[in-house]
Amino acid sequence: SRLNDPDLSRRTNLKRNYGITVEDYNVILINQNGVCAICGMQETALGNTGKIRKLAVDHCHLTGKIRGLLCCNCNRGIGYLKESKELLLRAANYIGK
Predict the structure, then answer these.
(1) pLDDT in tens, 32-47
(2) DSSP symbol at 52
């Protein structure tokens, strides 16, 4: 139960949603030096419990392949731009004007 294992829901969600274990997640996190794969910063967003959230598992929604771990802002940013390389490049060009 959750009382006996506070990480049960996290382990279950990682396995069900991404096919990885907490240990797999931690390997990715170590390989990224504990920071977001895009902005290179640590997560600052707070979860429901008031604690800083874990980096989100970013994956391709077509293939399910895991790309890396992202902070909330970067994960939302690519989501809002529909994971489209074209839209992301257009956005980068736009802000570079």
Answers:
(1) 999 999 999 999 999 9
(2) B
| pTM of the complete model | 0.88
3-class DSSP assignment, residue 57: strand
Residues 6+ apart with CB under 8 A from 7: 22
Give the residue among 60, 52, 66 at the shortest CA–CA distance from 14.
66
For residues 95 and 90, what is the distance between their CA atoms, to the nearest angstrom?
9
Write down the H helix ranges in 1-97.
8-18, 22-31, 72-80, 85-95
Coil vs helix vs strand at 70:
strand
SS3 46: strand
